[in-house]
């Protein structure tokens, strides 16, 4: 499948999706949303694919935000009636139950930062820069920044970022807990693909349920989350992969997963 604004390739059990509008610093327009939604649905439906990496083309940006030129002439009523940005959170995140990683190679600003934060976790190059500069355009985050950044780094830092529009470098992002790890820029894609391959080699139902449970921690009370966690565990122990995983441990060999 070929797309207008992204490229997609599979390497073993890992899907690599690259935002491909380098001249616009991979700005996110409606076509990018349509292409990503389709590519993520294809990944979700493909039983052989077990982890996905999303990155940006070029050496400058993961994505410099929602496409300002697309929004320039739109009126408030257009944004409201189209429920502009709804597709990003409604489809990309909620319908993707399998794991995916954002490999942030440069600017992740506005919608770019928000897209990265939709991932299960972020790996960032040492030259990555994160920010929610929407205030400088007279607006505010629209793809989850005010909510996800606040949950990721806490109120004070999220508020400062949103109110000043300043950028955070990779070191600060790591200290603040926004990203999982910093990787030298030259190794970012290689490292992200290796990390994804390691996840892809795990029992797939366990990977999906681990993901679901960590996400649930942001959505529920501790008590409800602990109940859900135990139920999830109790479901996983009924899988063939649990029997195989524990037998393989005792027999000192690698597990051979059936995915059920
Ligand atoms: N939308 C559309 N085009 C963009 C863009 C964006 N968000 N960001 C960069 N571009 C385009 C520029 O217009 C420029 O195109 P032209 O050559 O045709 O003029 C090209 O990409 C290169 O950009 P610059 O020349 O500006 O590159 P730079 O190295 O001087 O600066 C930058 C890099 C600091 C990232 C700067 O481009 C910038 O500030 N971009 C805008 C960042 C921003 O405000 N993002 C938030 C958008 S709103 C949003 O995302 C809402 C939301 O919450 C969903």
From TrEMBL:
<dbReference type="GO" id="GO:0004300">
    <property type="term" value="F:enoyl-CoA hydratase activity"/>
</dbReference>
<keyword id="KW-0443">Lipid metabolism</keyword>
<comment type="function">
    <text>Could possibly oxidize fatty acids using specific components.</text>
</comment>
<keyword id="KW-0276">Fatty acid metabolism</keyword>
<dbReference type="GO" id="GO:0006635">
    <property type="term" value="P:fatty acid beta-oxidation"/>
</dbReference>
<dbReference type="InterPro" id="IPR001753">
    <property type="entry name" value="Enoyl-CoA_hydra/iso"/>
</dbReference>
<dbReference type="InterPro" id="IPR018376">
    <property type="entry name" value="Enoyl-CoA_hyd/isom_CS"/>
</dbReference>
<protein>
    <recommendedName>
        <fullName>enoyl-CoA hydratase</fullName>
        <ecNumber>4.2.1.17</ecNumber>
    </recommendedName>
</protein>
<dbReference type="InterPro" id="IPR029045">
    <property type="entry name" value="ClpP/crotonase-like_dom_sf"/>
</dbReference>
<dbReference type="InterPro" id="IPR014748">
    <property type="entry name" value="Enoyl-CoA_hydra_C"/>
</dbReference>
<dbReference type="Pfam" id="PF00378">
    <property type="entry name" value="ECH_1"/>
</dbReference>
<comment type="similarity">
    <text>Belongs to the enoyl-CoA hydratase/isomerase family.</text>
</comment>
<keyword id="KW-0456">Lyase</keyword>
């Amino acid at each position: 499948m070929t797309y207008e604004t992204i490229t997609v390739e599979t390497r073993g059990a890992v899907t690599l999706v690259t935002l491909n509008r380098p001249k616009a610093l991979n700005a996110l327009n409606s076509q990018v949303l349509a292409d990503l939604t389709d590519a993520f649905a294809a990944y979700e439906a493909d039983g052989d694919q077990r982890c996905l990496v999303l990155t940006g083309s070029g050496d400058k940006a993961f994505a410099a935000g929602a496409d300002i030129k697309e929004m320039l002439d739109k009126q408030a009523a257009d944004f409201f009636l189209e429920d502009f940005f709804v597709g990003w959170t409604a489809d990309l995140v909620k319908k993707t139950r399998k794991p995916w990683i954002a490999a942030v190679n440069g600017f992740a600003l506005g919608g770019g930062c928000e897209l990265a934060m939709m991932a299960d976790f972020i790996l960032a190059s040492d030259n990555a820069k994160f920010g929610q500069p929407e205030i400088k355009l007279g607006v505010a985050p629209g793809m989850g920044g005010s909510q996800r950044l606040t949950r990721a780094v806490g109120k004070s830092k999220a508020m400062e970022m949103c109110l000043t529009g300043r950028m955070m470098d990779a070191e600060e992002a790591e200290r603040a807990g926004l990203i999982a790890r910093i990787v030298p820029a030259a190794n970012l894609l290689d490292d992200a693909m290796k990390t994804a391959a390691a996840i892809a080699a795990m029992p797939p139902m366990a990977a999906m349920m681990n993901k679901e449970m960590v996400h649930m921690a942001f959505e529920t009370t501790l008590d409800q989350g602990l109940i859900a966690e135990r139920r999830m565990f109790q479901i996983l122990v009924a899988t063939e992969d649990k029997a195989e995983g524990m037998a393989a441990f005792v027999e000192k060999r690698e597990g051979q997963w059936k995915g059920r």
